[in-house]
Structures are given as structure tokens and as C-alpha cells.
Amino acid sequence: MLDDFMTRATLAGIGVAIAAAPLGCFVVWRRMAYFGDATAHAAILGVALSLAFQMSIFIGAMAVALIMAMTVTLLAGRGYAMDTLLGVLAHSSLAFGLVAVSFLSGIRIDLMAYLFGDILAVSRLDLAVIWGGAALVVALIAWRWSALLTSTLSDELAYASGRDPRREQLILTLSLAVTVAVAIKVVGVLLIAAMLVIPAAAARGLARTPEAMAVTAGVIGAVSAAAGLRAAYVFDTPAGPSIVCVAAVLFAALNLVGWRSQRGA
Prior knowledge:
Layout: H1 5-29, H2 33-52, H3 57-75, H4 82-102, H5 111-116, H6 124-143, H7 145-153, H8 155-160, H9 165-187, H10 192-204, H11 210-235, H12 239-264
Helix pairs in contact: 1-6, 1-9, 1-10, 1-11, 2-3, 2-4, 2-9, 2-10, 3-9, 6-9, 7-9, 10-11, 10-12, 11-12
């Protein structure tokens, strides 16, 4: 079954959706959308370093994404507004990554595949990495679910309950780095933040509990991946952007239905 490239691509998309769903909910609740975007942009520098030192792209992208996320966490509140700091680091790391790629002599690289994804070229090894990373992210979030929710509501509430919100932020940072690393092959660094935010935002109006929102976001992400791949095959469009377009259409449709039901009530 895995010999079929469309099957591998669909499974890869679903794996990324599963990883991004619970993490995307926390990104939405904490208003960290730009934080996720900055971490994803940094991954292109990790790709360049991985190719230069002939190491795994997954490890290089995850390491640089993690360094970026931890740097932002450490520098936040030290004289710069968060959005300013994220803007500087996001765009500078992307620029340095693109420049570093241009210095790689003797290495053929499809830069568009890393920027916008190349899900149709997913191999069995890529599939194992994606699902392994998704399992790690889901395990981390499930392990710290209650503590993460408490620290999301309030730092003071977290301290009062004996939890350290900085540790929970570190767990989110690690999960975000893993998700970025596994999603590069599927949607590329420029669209990873969309797969984090859009399904979670679409699920927000449908769910009554945080757990239901995470599950619903996963379903919306998986449907977006499968339908986006089908649309890319039928209309001969780029697969990664097609997946994000389907997610955006679902977001708009679900919000329209919710708006009409509220008016009808």
C-alpha cells in the first residue's frame, strides 16, 4: 500500500494534522500565531546547515527551530515588544537561511520544496519520521495537558497550583520545534503556521471543551490534507498550498454556518 505515492502523501498530511491539532489549540489560546511563524521561518536555516554538514534535515530543522523558540522566550520582556522581537528574528533567520543555501556548492536543492512543501515526494522514511514526531508531540501534550491549560489561563493560577508556567512554555516550545521539523516536507516553512492556526481556529466555534477542540482541529486538519491533495491532483496545483486553501475554505464555511445559526436563534 505504501508503494503508492498518493497514499504516502495522504498519510503524511494526516500525521502533520495530528501533530499540529493540539499544539495549534494552544497557539490560538495563547495568541502565539506569530511565534509559530517565526519558529517555522528559522527552520530554513536548519535545512541549510543540515545540507552543509550532511546531517538529517529533520534534526537540523528541529534544532534551529528549538533554538529560535528558546531565544524568543528568553529575550521576551527585556526591552523589546514581543511582536517586534519575533519580526526581527523571523525575517532575519529566513534571510540568513536563504543566503546560506546559495553558498552550498555542489549540492542540488529544490528551494521551493522547502518553502512550500513537497508532500508528493514523501518516502517511507519520511513517513516514519513524520508519524514518530507526531506521536512525540501528542505524548508531550497529553502528559502535560492539565498543567498546560492551567498556565494558559493564568501564570498566577499555575504558580498557585504548584506548577511552573516557564516549564510548560518550554514543553510547548519543544513540541513546536518537532512539529515544524516534521511539517517541512508536507507544507513547507512558509505554510506551517497556517496548518497550526487555521484548523484550530475553525474548531473553536464547534467545540465546548478544550479536549473537544483539539480533536475537532485534528479532524479538520486531516480532512484538509486529504481534500487538498485530491484537489492538487485534479487541478494540477501545488499540494502544500492546496491543503492550506482547503483548510481556509473550511474555516470560512464553518464560521458562516455558525454566524447564520446565531442569527436564526
